[in-house]
Amino acid sequence: xxxxxxxxxxxxxxxxxxxxxxxxxxxxxxxxxxxxxxxxxxxxxxxxxxxxxxxxxxxxxxxxxxxxxxxxxxxxxxxxxxxxxxxxxxxxxxxxxxxxxxxxxxxxxxxxxxxxxxxxxxxxxxxxxxxxxxxxxxxxxxxxxxxxxxxxxxxxxxxxxxxxxxxxxxxxxxxxxxxxxxxxxxxxxxxxxxxxxxxxxxxxxxxxxxxxxxxxxxxxxxxxxxxxxxxxxxxxxxxxx
Length: 241
Known about the structure:
By secondary structure, this protein is an alpha/beta fold. It has helices spanning 26-34, 60-63, 74-77, 92-99, 117-127, 140-149, 162-165, 171-177, 183-186, 201-206, 220-225, 237-240; strands spanning 8-11, 38-45, 51-53, 105-109, 133-137, 155-159, 190-194, 211-217, 232-235. It has a single domain (8-240), classed as TIM Barrel (Alpha-Beta Barrel). This is Glycerophosphodiester phosphodiesterase. Pfam families: GDPD.
């Protein structure tokens, strides 16, 4: 996997005051570019098949309305400002055009269930992009899709302490996810792991001979404490700004 000169990636862009520069907004991405940070972002698919940048499963926290990105068309989503700001949910293609290869991108693929249409659309847009990028996901089938259809695109398995951090998921599913055995199928190029759980056996095992990203860092002290554990650091605005 290619190495990047800057070890810091801005988590959902270099956002600040949510009423002015909210997360996953064009303003946050532009700010990251101007300050030389790599960008971590989240991709979802709208009801009309548009790849947009948005993290949450629903619209309530950021847009103050019900429903999900997947239940609205892109045009409908433009009616909902992000956190009451002047920013709207951006298209991936517009962000790619704005970044223009100036900083590397870490793109998390968000999908519900086994519908991998978001992989197809994201890959289609990235095929024409000339900058550096890699993809990551908690969903092992996303990684497997890229392994099969875009084997040259660096892919990473997102992980944490699933048993502790996902109480709403069935215990059996969490136990199966914890050792990351799906890596045998998806063969990730890198591991993106919650830094507070860096001592888990699953991370210690799978990090061997792989690039590692740590998330999410909110202080320089935390970065220093993990300096030897991760190659790259996904940082929050309170630290990176």
